[in-house]
Amino acid sequence: MTQAQPLRVAFAGTPEFARVALEAIHAAGFPVVAVLTQPDRPAGRGMQLQASPVKQFALDAGLGLVLQPRSLRRQGKYPEEAGAAVDALAATAPDVMVVAAYGLILPAEVLTLPRYGCLNIHASLLPRWRGAAPIHRAIEAGDAETGITLMQMDEGLDTGAMLSREAVPIGPLDTTGTLHDTLAALGGRMIVAALQQLAAGQPLAATPQPEAGVTYAEKIAKDEAPLDLRRPATALAGQVRAFNPFPGATVQVGDTVIKCWQALPLAASTPLPHPPGTVLAADASGVIIACGEGSALQVTELQKPGGRRQPAQQFLQGQPLPPGTRCLVPA
């Protein structure tokens, strides 16, 4: 009797979210025959070239072939680079490719290269929040839950058939950072289960995504950081949590831009007599700022330029914000 050959896995991903999945696949004993990740980028104060978390893990784990093309399209901007990478990937004869936050578009040639195709780990309950920043946008929008969807990739933007979905509640104190870690671990568990199913000769059931309920999670831009204090505090508190740890929501007092890392909405029993952007109180419990619709935002963790993140009590010792201070509000 011939023993079944192990499932040969190629992996494509770049940030920490993807590294967690790669580590789970490796720990489960699947041979990872190729790793694709973004080229090294300048980072840190010295702007030295740094490997992605996925590349660093692959090197530390001795996973062998690591490919870092700037494109995978033979007809694109870097045709020779792309062709060499695709040919090298094909030579490893992967049975399946797992993709998680890779950052490059996979052409049809790559999508159809493994016999089981490409499986994507996506951090939302598709079809809600297709696109680049599903965790941020779910928190910002006030969603009650999110989750992980495993998807059979096609040439569209997160439009492929769903293989499995698992929901995760979004808690009132969840930030993008905390939810990222929860979803990354869940994605690792789910992809390992899917690979084990394939290795056992059991096909993965695919369900087309419904046409209703599609939303797009646009990439987070730094110019979204300022809080529009004319909005209700509930929405602003969601923005603060969504932009933690990147890019950090901000308020501006004079020429000083202050990052707000933790905040709670406060509802006033009667309309506030102060216009949005007015500091109502500032003490050890937080900086309370008047917002739209008679609400107020209590900011409990702040950071001034060049400083560290600090609880309100410590922050106010170096940056007093007495009642009546005005924060910049758009005209």
From TrEMBL:
- EC number(s) stated in the UniProt entry for this protein: 2.1.2.9
According to the UniProt record, what class of enzyme is this? transferase
List the coiled-coil residues: none
Give the SUPFAM superfamilies listed for this entry.
Answer: FMT C-terminal domain-like, Formyltransferase
Q: Which residues form the Formyl transferase C-terminal domain?
A: 219-319
| Residue span(s) of domain Formyl transferase N-terminal | 8-195
**UniProt GO MF annotations:** methionyl-tRNA formyltransferase activity
List UniProt keywords, sorted A-Z: Protein biosynthesis, Transferase
Highest taxon of the lineage:
Bacteria
UniProt: (6S)-5,6,7,8-tetrahydrofolate binding residues: S124, L125, L126, P127
Substrates-to-products reaction catalysed: L-methionyl-tRNA(fMet) + (6R)-10-formyltetrahydrofolate = N-formyl-L-methionyl-tRNA(fMet) + (6S)-5,6,7,8-tetrahydrofolate + H(+)
What family does the entry list?
A: Belongs to the Fmt family.
Report the PANTHER family cross-referenced here.
Answer: METHIONYL-TRNA FORMYLTRANSFERASE, METHIONYL-TRNA FORMYLTRANSFERASE, MITOCHONDRIAL
Q: What does this protein do?
A: Attaches a formyl group to the free amino group of methionyl-tRNA(fMet). The formyl group appears to play a dual role in the initiator identity of N-formylmethionyl-tRNA by promoting its recognition by IF2 and preventing the misappropriation of this tRNA by the elongation apparatus.
The protein's name is: Methionyl-tRNA formyltransferase
Q: Source species, please?
A: Cupriavidus campinensis
Name of the coding gene: fmt
